[in-house]
């Protein structure tokens, strides 16, 4: 039988679970969960802190700097990976590179109208990271997407205006034409180079 048999103990345990999930979502190297528990108990019981405010300030600053340095190092790695991928990809037959750095290859030409920046379009698309991980796909959802041409990432805005209805292109989008230093959600990290298959179904307006 669980030692958390009452609704009060179960709810208390649940609060701990939620706090643990938050910590696990943004941890730092060396995080001491037992120290976290001690700090929680100290605050809850209104007991004197075992660590002075000045020590806490210094510790928080030091950890923040370490985390920023780790992020910067990871960013360098991701940027270098993307640049290497694009450099090799540009050598392949059929891959074209625009002045902005966008790369594309034409899978199907299309014969209809080309949209303008203020047009609305209907598309099917399939998006992956350069390692092949799928992060979004209207094909998998079975539902095309409708949006304004100037309401998406720069790489898409540029490519769509060169496409004609019925065209299908594969886009290789460098980070500065995608989601840049912010990334997008958990699936697309900062500075990610992205690959999209984009099919322009209709120019709506």
UniProtKB/TrEMBL annotation:
Coiled coil: none annotated. Pfam families: FKBP_C, FKBP_N. Its EC number is 5.2.1.8. It is an enzyme of class 5 (isomerase). The keyword Secreted does not apply. GO terms for molecular function: peptidyl-prolyl cis-trans isomerase activity. It catalyses: [protein]-peptidylproline (omega=180) = [protein]-peptidylproline (omega=0). Keywords: Isomerase, Rotamase, Signal. It comes from the Bacteria. Residues 118-204 form the PPIase FKBP-type domain. The keyword Manganese does not apply. GO terms for biological process: protein folding. NCBIfam families: PRK11570.1. Belongs to the FKBP-type PPIase family. This is Peptidyl-prolyl cis-trans isomerase. It comes from Bowmanella dokdonensis.
């Amino acid at each position: 039988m669980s030692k958390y048999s009452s609704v009060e103990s179960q709810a208390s345990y649940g609060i701990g679970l939620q706090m643990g999930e938050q910590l696990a979502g943004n941890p730092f190297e060396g995080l001491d969960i037992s120290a976290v528990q001690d700090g929680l108990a100290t605050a809850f019981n209104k007991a004197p802190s075992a660590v002075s405010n000045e020590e806490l300030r210094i510790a928080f600053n030091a950890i923040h700097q370490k985390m920023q340095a780790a992020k910067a190092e990871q960013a360098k790695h991701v940027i270098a990976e993307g640049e290497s991928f694009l450099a090799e990809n540009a050598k392949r037959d059929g891959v074209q590179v625009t002045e902005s750095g966008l790369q594309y290859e034409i899978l199907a030409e299309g014969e209809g109208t080309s949209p303008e920046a203020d047009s609305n379009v209907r598309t099917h698309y399939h998006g992956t990271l350069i390692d092949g991980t799928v992060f979004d796909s209207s094909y998998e959802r079975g539902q095309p997407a409708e949006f304004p041409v100037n309401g998406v990432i720069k790489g898409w805005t540029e490519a769509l205006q060169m496409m004609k209805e019925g065209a299908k292109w594969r886009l290789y989008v460098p980070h500065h034409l995608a989601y840049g230093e912010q990334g997008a959600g958990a699936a697309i990290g900062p500075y990610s180079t992205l690959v999209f298959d984009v099919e322009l179904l209709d120019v709506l307006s």
